[in-house]
Design a protein that fits this description.
The structure holds two protein chains of two kinds. Chain A is an alpha/beta fold. Chain A has ten helices and eight strands. In chain A, strand 3, helix 4 and strand 4 form a beta-alpha-beta unit. The chains are: A alpha/beta, B alpha+beta.
Chain lengths: ~300, ~500
């Protein structure tokens, strides 16, 4: 027995040594999506060491509290999450198991983006019969640059709070980002002017903010209810409905299965536009600027 | 082993005191205080500057964004939240989380703090080729409950009610009660868990599923098959619940390294009620996990459980076929190795997923075995060395559909029975302990229309009995209502 305890203690001290290795220079941040990771890099540069929990090819809702994420939550100085229940399946587990008081909700080390902006599609009543609806509103807030601007401001302030030694650095970078973002936003809105009023079909309701920003008209969703895959009967009905009022484009995210969108496109003779949805979703969407550049370029190219 | 119990207690207390001890040990408190005061002044000025700028930018955005501004107050709570956060950086208590832009249905403050409530409904239809009343895994001392496929025809399985909430900034509490089909209620888990220990430590206390092995902590509605592997049924009576305390520590590393210890009363099998003040169920466990690329994640574990029992009775028949009650008193030590691997393209299980999982358990029992405790009551030494394992694979071959295959095997070995060795009784007086190698193969197919419902069909060739094969068809439903469940690994 005592041998066993000694063995465990040896293992524990070995683990401590391994853990002590990383330099203290950069604060450790766990970002739930590649978009927040990209924003953190914009605002924090080399002062933040960012780990991204998901990729652009993942449905952020359908993630397990896997061991690697618990380990990152344990050592994080800051967690940047979307909130509005998007990560409800796994974030509470990470927070509880982490043994890390710095990142508990309410502490400066826990940041949620969605509550900072005006959420669309807040349901008046909720019932699971309506599918995967989010009681707090649609959490897919990133595809509106005005939201990014608001979140970036709060996140820069939060970085300064978590890492006060570099507060001036974050403030300066935050200001620089806002300036560049403002210019880019004006450019995007000018470029995207022809998209106003264009009728589109989406798969999941995760393009709501993009549509709202650009004035795209969401004529239908391939999912009859959020998170509920379409039945054959529903698709047939959709074809009939959309033949009468045809959309110009069908929008598909990088992480969506192409089958349903392609099937519909073939029937109603409308092009499918693959959109990055998240940073990393297409080779062009390398950062947040690339995400919006590429999204608008792809929409405009498909319209021609 | 007896040394561990007070040792574990002292360790847990030491860990609880650790953070405070750390501060007390600082030499130059005054210098530190001065430094903090300086920092505080510095932050205050910086934050005031930031707040001013946020207000300025906010008004700029509000004008640039009339649509959004008209529908909602621009970025509510942001300046306030930052302001309180500064206070909390100096004095630990929590700052309120920024209030969502719209929180529907939160009109009454009386219900605002209601805990998360969820209910899981399960039931099945079973078609069994053998009489379930005679089910027994051959070669092993049977657990008091938890063995076998359950009853025939339609069965209401457990309805599991879970209520959980943070208690205060320091504790989280969770109660899971299983209302059984026979109208009895089992408290499966009722525990508190610390939130404020920091440094990777958490303590759980109350009744909880032991963290030994992989499957032991998993609640039945999250199992990939309708029943537990044979080895869990025989060694733990299904699942091992501890009444006691658990300490876990996660290493500050990029790999997941978790070490833990448990101390419990040993009331549940393989322990027994003992009417003693001492602890009787101690466990140690270590987990290692990580990712391999963006599609694969894994976890390995090793656990050790030491449980002591006094007069742990079980029913058997004697050499003449008459029912008798026998009882074991002694120590039961179990080693477990477990491994789990999950794969999904880019980590997204919507289209395809694969899960491979296996565990090996080895148990030695050492003590006294009493024969016919209500009659002749003869006792002699007993020692067994037994093992069991299972491997299972689940493949999500298209959205919503999964198929699985499981193989179970156990080795009873030949236990040393003092009464038999001394010639007092023939070995046929202990038919349950006749050497055997139970086997079972199981096929599973399930269909989940949403995250909250699952329908499953399972077919097993169960060769756990000494002689006949039991062909078992189970059709099962699982429905979850209420608060969203956790996606545990």
């Amino acid at each position: 027995m005592s041998k066993l305890i000694r063995g465990l203690l040896a293992l524990a001290s070995l683990a401590l040594c391994l853990g002590a290795a990383p330099a203290q220079a950069a604060i450790r941040v766990l970002a739930t999506t590649p978009d927040w990771a990209a924003l953190l890099v914009e605002l924090g540069g080399d002062k933040v060491n960012v780990y991204t929990a998901t990729s652009a090819f993942q449905d952020v809702h359908r993630v397990d509290a896997k061991p690697s994420l618990v380990a990152r939550a344990r050592t994080a100085d800051l967690i940047v999450a979307t909130g509005a229940d998007l990560e409800i399946g796994w974030m509470p587990v990470l927070l509880q198991d982490s043994g890390n008081t710095k990142v508990q909700p309410g502490a400066p080390g826990y940041f949620e983006a969605a509550p900072l902006v005006h959420l669309l599609e807040v349901p008046a009543a909720v019932d699971r019969a309506m599918g995967d609806i989010h009681p707090l509103g649609n959490p897919h807030v990133t595809l509106d640059p005005r939201n990014i601007a608001i979140i970036a401001r709060a996140l820069a302030a939060r970085l300064a709070l978590v890492d006060p030694a570099n507060a001036a650095f974050y403030a300066a970078r935050g200001e620089d980002f806002q300036r560049r973002w403002q210019q880019a936003s004006v450019r995007w809105e000018t470029q995207a002017a022809p998209l106003k009023g264009v009728g589109v079909v989406v798969i999941h309701r995760d393009q709501a903010y993009l549509c709202n920003w650009l004035g795209l008209k969401e004529l239908a969703a391939i999912e009859p209810k959020p998170g509920v895959p379409p039945s054959a009967g529903y698709l047939v009905e959709l074809v009939t409905r959309l033949t009468a009022t045809p959309p110009r484009l069908i929008l598909r995210n990088a992480y969506n299965d192409p089958k349903a969108a392609d099937w519909l496109a073939e029937r109603i003779h409308v092009p499918v536009v693959l959109l990055p949805y998240s940073v990393g979703g297409t080779p062009q969407a390398k950062d947040l600027f690339g995400l919006f550049d590429d999204t608008i370029n792809r929409l405009l190219a498909a319209l021609k | 082993m007896a040394k561990l119990a007070p040792g574990a207690g002292a360790f847990i207390v030491a860990c609880m005191l650790w953070p405070h001890a750390g501060y007390a040990a600082t030499d130059d408190v005054a210098a530190l205080r001065a430094e903090i005061e300086a920092l505080k002044a510095d932050y205050t000025s910086r934050v005031q500057a930031l707040e001013a700028r946020i207000k300025q930018l906010e008004s700029a955005v509000a004008t640039a964004q009339p649509a959004a501004a008209a529908a909602a107050p621009a970025a509510p709570g942001t300046p306030g939240a930052v302001g309180t956060a500064v206070a909390s950086a100096v004095a630990p208590p929590a700052l309120p989380q920024a209030v969502p832009g719209a929180a529907p249905g939160k009109s009454s403050s009386a219900t605002a703090f209601n805990p998360a409530i969820s209910m899981i409904l399960t039931g099945n239809y079973a078609s069994l080729s053998q009489d379930p009343a005679t089910y027994r895994v051959a070669g092993f001392i049977p657990p008091p409950a938890g063995e076998g496929p359950g009853e025939r025809s339609f069965n209401l399985d457990e309805s599991e009610l879970t209520v959980s909430s943070n208690v205060d900034p320091y504790f989280f509490a969770n109660v899971t009660a299983a209302i059984q089909g026979d109208n009895s209620i089992d408290i499966e888990e009722a525990y508190f868990k610390t939130l404020a220990l920091n440094r990777g430590f958490t303590i759980k206390g109350g009744r909880f599923f032991s963290a030994t092995g992989y499957l032991n902590e998993v609640h039945s509605h999250n199992w990939d098959f309708a029943d537990q592997p044979l080895v869990y049924q025989v060694f733990f009576g299904g699942q091992l619940a501890q009444d006691g305390a658990q300490l876990r520590w996660i290493a500050p590393t990029d790999y997941f390294i978790e070490l833990g210890a448990e101390a419990g009363s040993g009331r549940s099998f393989p322990g027994s009620h003992r009417n003693l003040n001492s602890l009787a169920s101690d466990a140690l466990f270590a987990h290692l996990g990580g990712d391999a690329g963006d599609s694969t994640s894994w976890r390995l574990g090793v656990s050790w459980l030491d449980a002591r029992s006094t007069d742990r009775a079980y029913g058997d028949v004697d050499q003449f076929g008459a029912p008798v009650s026998d009882a074991f008193t002694g120590t039961s030590r179990t080693w477990i190795l477990d491994g789990t691997l999950k794969w999904a393209p880019h980590g997204d299980p919507t289209q395809h997923l694969f899960k491979l999982q296996g565990e090996y358990l080895h148990r030695t029992e050492d003590g006294q075995l009493a024969f016919d405790i209500t009659g002749q009551n003869l006792a002699g030494a007993y020692r067994s060395s037994q093992s069991g394992w299972y491997v299972q694979a689940v493949y999500g071959f298209m959205p919503r559909w999964r198929a699985g295959l499981r193989y179970d095997a156990m080795q009873s070995g030949t236990p040393r029975i003092g009464l038999v060795d001394a010639g007092l009784l023939p070995s046929t007086a202990f038919p349950s302990l006749e050497p055997a190698s139970p086997r079972r193969a199981t096929l599973m197919l399930d269909w989940s229309l949403s995250e909250f419902s699952r329908l499953r069909a399972q077919y097993a060739w169960d060769e756990a009995r000494a002689t006949e094969t039991d062909r078992q068809l189970l059709l099962q439903y699982i429905f979850a209502i209420g608060a969203h469940g956790a996606h545990k690994f």
